[in-house]
Amino acid sequence: MNIATPWLLKPTSQAKQPNTTVHRFFLNHGQSLRIAAELLGGDIAVTLVADIMKALQAEPVPSQQTLRRLIRLENLLFLQNVDDPDSIEAGLFASIAPDEPIVEDICMLADGLREALNIAIDSPDIAAVCTQCGSHRGSPFAIPAIGGTQ
User: Fold this and answer.
1) Which percentage of the chain shows pLDDT scores above 90?
2) Residues 109/101, Cβ–Cβ less than 8 Å
3) Where are the domains of the chain?
4) What does pTM read for this prediction?
5) What angle do CA 41, 67, 137 make, to 5 degrees?
6) How far apart are the C-alpha atoms of 137 and 50, rounded to whole Å?
């Protein structure tokens, strides 16, 4: 751990070391994800990232609720809801110039989160959770937008 590691992700014992690619991704990129979420989804998205970080600290395997939140964050980073002109995401996205350096960072975070989720979902422990709750992508279960309900 280095001094820049968010306190929420610092393990308190050996048993709480990051167990999945998602844990490791948040350990390495949690602060950047928070900034990207704020730019693309406002305060609600910042709360979403904080909730994910808190849950990952407590869960050796992400729960159904945490997986749903992770997919909501993935949808935010991949701009899934910017086509709705009444959404928070559309307004915030419109305020970002395409040539701003943060755009490339957000793209890299989105790709990294998707890769971490894909690897994690292939693991037996998380695949079992996904099967129980239908929180994998391509599921018939609706994952609400940032402004929606959980």
Assistant:
1) 45
2) no
3) 18-133
4) 0.74
5) 85
6) 22
